[in-house]
Design goal:
The protein is mostly helical. The protein has one domain (about 1-185). The chain has helices spanning about 20-30, 40-45, 65-70, 70-85, 95-100, 110-135, 140-160, 165-170, 175-180, 185-210. The longest helix has 28 residues, at about 110-135. The termini are far apart. It binds zinc ion.
Length: about 210
């Protein structure tokens, strides 16, 4: 089964995933374009700061990639999430987590679910970073994993119309959730054709924005 995971084949890129709230998609869109107010980006925009070092680890500059992925505080959370999803020998990079590749060889729906989990992870790492910086609240890795599991289940199970996802499976054997081929293909086919149209429109709008 490991050959199907992590999703890596068929570069069907997207900036939208209807299994999670729009705000998470917007967050990912911004993260990929480095449009999050991390210290390095604020500095580039002329904000007067005492330091641009990561406020969590103080090891290096706080870039988007660092705070969401490379920072020791983020990395330990990603490791826990990857372990929960069947354990990988090594973590991918920032782009693997956020570029939205789907593995359509295994299961489109499954890859979409896995992407939703990854995006939820990034979203909650960012939320945690803000709470730590502005409210000095703590967020331990076990707490983080628990929040990601609960939140992603709440979002995905509710929105996934073509498949009933049990909490027990989600928690203990999520791979079984995404590798189940018993799906209603008509629904997926119609979903993807609507989805492709949406994506084409989004890209067109973005090009228009850039050119104006
Ligand atoms: Zn850091």
């Amino acid at each position: 089964m490991s050959h199907c995971f992590p999703p890596s084949a068929n570069n069907v890129s997207t900036q939208k995933n209807n299994l999670i709230p729009k705000k998470v998609g917007v967050f990912v869109w911004r993260a990929k374009r480095k449009r999050l107010p991390v210290l390095v980006e604020l500095d580039k925009r002329g904000v007067d700061l005492n330091s641009v070092r990561c406020p969590l680890c103080d090891d290096t500059l706080e870039s988007v990639e660092h705070t969401l992925f490379s920072c020791v505080h983020a990395k330990v959370v990603w490791e826990k999430v990857y372990n929960w999803w069947g354990n990988l020998t090594s973590l991918g990079g920032f782009d693997d987590a956020f570029d939205g590749k789907f593995n359509t060889q295994a299961s489109i729906l499954g890859a979409k679910i896995w992407q939703a989990v990854q995006w939820t992870t990034g979203y909650l790492i960012w939320k945690n970073r803000n709470q730590k910086v502005f409210k000095n609240s703590s967020w331990s890795p076990p707490m983080a994993l628990n929040e990601i599991q609960v939140k992603s289940y709440d979002w995905v199970a509710k929105r996934c119309k073509s498949k009933k996802i049990e909490w027990h499976d989600w928690l203990n054997n999520p791979i079984s959730v995404i590798l189940n081929r018993n799906q209603r293909h008509e629904i997926l086919t119609s979903y993807w054709s609507a989805y492709d149209n949406d994506m084409a429109q989004m890209e067109l709008n973005e090009q228009r924005c850039i050119s104006c």
